[in-house]
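Checked the freezer inventory, then went back to the computational side. Two predictions to log before the end of the day. The first one is the construct we discussed on Monday; recording sequence and tokens without edits.
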Amino acid sequence: MGNLGPTELLIIAGVLILLFGAKKLPEMARGLGRSMRIFKSETAKLREDDYDDRPATVETVTQTPAQPQPAPAQPIQAAPALSVEEQARQLEEQAAKLRASADKKV
């Protein structure tokens, strides 16, 4: 059941073209590629976060005389982190704007 031969793949491709049209398929493939890229980057970030949360190993440190460090002039404010859904929504809005500008040019 899991083995698909070339004939079955051609039939599936033909049905997809009939259902969605030849013009929509490249757009769908691009969207799927973007989604996979976002998914991979987010999973990589999660792995890095998990790695950073591990307890530090005990190491021997040589004593050095303490030197006063200057205080920072102003605290740096980080931009608020966006959730994955918000990032995806922003990317979809940008894609829609680009498609609209491309349609105007054609």
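The second is the one RB wanted added to the comparison set:
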Amino acid sequence: MADMRILLNDKAIERLMSPDKGRYIVRDTELKGFFLMVGARKKTFMVQADLRKLGKRVSTVRLAIGDTRELSTRAARSVAKEYLSQLSRGIHPKSGEKAAKASIASEITNGENSEASGITLKQAWARYKIAMQRKNRSERTIESYRDHVERIFKDWQETPLKQLGDDPGQVATKHDEIGEKHGPYIANGSMRTFRAIYNHARKTNRELPADNPVDSVDWNHEKRRDSGMGLIDLKGWFIEVAKLENPVRREFHLFTLLSACRPAALKEAKPAHLDLRRRVLHIPRPKGGADRAFDIPLSREMICCLLRCIRFGRQMHPYEANDWLFPADSATGHLVEHKEDRATLSKWGNELRQTYRTVATPAGVSELDARMLMNHSVPGVNSGYITRHKLLEDHLRAQQQAISDTMFSVFRNPLNENREIQDWLGIGAARRQLLRAKEDARRSEMNELTRTRRRAA
């Protein structure tokens, strides 16, 4: 059997299967050099490291610590740390090994009787992370949880959850401290993360109190951000976008407005996701993971926006443009940071998503259609019977076009007056062609009128 690598603890070791013949190694992910040798009859804690003297490797030492039936994982880990420390100092721990092991194990055992025991926050997070991956949660969501655990709750990593469950006041105090240091939104968000991890851990650790300690928290008030624009505000914003020097970023902000797509998902859009025949852009991993994948119906303005971006991308980043719709000179090859200086562009990101929802109302788009266009969950039992992709080809695309038309209707005057916008969208050339066609039609009409008068004379 191939070697394994897990976080060694008593419960994980109990679940390890003994081989019919031979043996295999299970290495600890936390302490380098500490591992378990699993044989047909027993499981043995062991340690391996290089013995060095004067900076040179003398030999590689492998020592047995003890049988899992005689020694707990916690005690064995402490012995392993002591052995590794001696080896790093050039001391072979062979002499007096049994006495040292017995002494350390005894101290650990006595300590276990006086301290709270059980699964720690770090261990619970490792298991919950696996559960989130099995549910196809997006990488951004998992990364957000990881940040809360490893940064906000850094000093709780080795704290048993039972200790926190028995003392909910400690959790409430922690919430207050986080609020003062990082702000009320981070405090609330990190506590939601802790609440979810605790609830998941209790499914397999019944010694944890049934009442979640986060219930003791006095939540900070969270005001919904009201930063979307109305129709009258779009005129100035559109002129600001036209002045951006980077054309790829310019098209990114415009498409964010026209589609209401979340910036994080839009940055990872690929040319392969664009289907011009069906006039849709597929978003494979939006917020909520792959299970929430959906297609964005494209209006005429949205298609023009993407085609301009593809043309600009191929000129500026020819290699990256093969893989990304919004290419950039970055490690990933696509646009990473979408934020702009407020003095340059007043609104971006989710503020454009709020603007989209605001404009949908004067565009005559219903609440249900707006939710489906923005990939929101649809409330109600009857709405659950709606098949979204059946509405996509005609109805939802018509609603998308109505929103785009409403947005561009307020741009008409600035578009006719602003040369930068005309050059960006090609409206100046189109307008000149229209004027030329009208002039030709007028001349043709006058010539026909002149010929008719001559024939009558």
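For RB: The longest helix spans residues 427-456. The beta strands are 4-6, 23-28, 34-39, 43-53, 56-67, 274-275, 280-283, 294-297. Let me know if you want it refolded.
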